[in-house]
Write a structure and sequence with these properties.
Layout: H1 2-5, H2 11-17, H3 30-45, H4 52-70, H5 80-89, H6 105-127, H7 135-145, H8 153-163, H9 169-176, H10 181-208
Helix pairs in contact: 2-3, 3-4, 4-6, 6-7, 6-10
This protein binds ligand 1PZ.
Amino acid sequence: SVAVEDPKFTLQEVLDTFKSCLSENKEVYLEHYVAGWLGLVRFMNSLGSVFSFIAKDAVNKIQILINHLNGENGAHYVTVQSMVKYELDNQLVDLTKRASFPESGCRTLLRLHRALRWLELFLERLRTSTEESKTSVMCSEAYNESLSQHHAWIIRKAAGTAFWALPGRATFFDVMNVGTPEQVVAMLGDALPLISEVYQVTENLYAQNNILDLP
Ligand code: 1PZ
């Protein structure tokens, strides 16, 4: 597991990455956003192989964004704001159906953005849960309230099946590697407003540009 490879790996570090995402004038740095996601994927992989099909899709999308960042137009991809402007101004986004630009930064990031909302809802449930709470229930409730609305039936079915393989609350807290349950709850209380702000800034940007439904 990740915890064995890197004894310093904790979910706190991952969530802290999202802290560095926002610039003073509330722009979202793509480099840090991507780094935050890579950390989440590492965490997800440490939960077991059942989640690897989910992690694989996330990794594909992270890689697409890294390629944009490292590409010849990388300077336009420094922030999510500059990315959206650059791709829209230059007609590099498929707006109605997937055709010429299946790997636009805008449509790719939108998928991670929607998943971030799931994460926010799930972690908030975890934060306010009790010892008796079931992670699978918290996870599927959060999913049904967010990401599932964007998924086809077959994906929803597969996701629902994977949720039942989630470790219980106590194990989940251990894997986070943050400390006692009380410390986990406190950490989540600190981290969630930051994730929420990154989500909201991105959501507003996409809404203003009318690109919340990119195919
Ligand atoms: C800790 C437990 C993990 C539960 C994760 C809950 C989310 C379930 C999502 C199931 C996604 C299944 C695989 C691929 C789906 C893709 O079709 C979609 C749309 O992309 P497109 O087809 O349009 O290119 N991909 C996504 O919605 C992105 C999903 C990313 C999931 C990341 C989960 C983050 C986990 C963090 C762990 C703490």
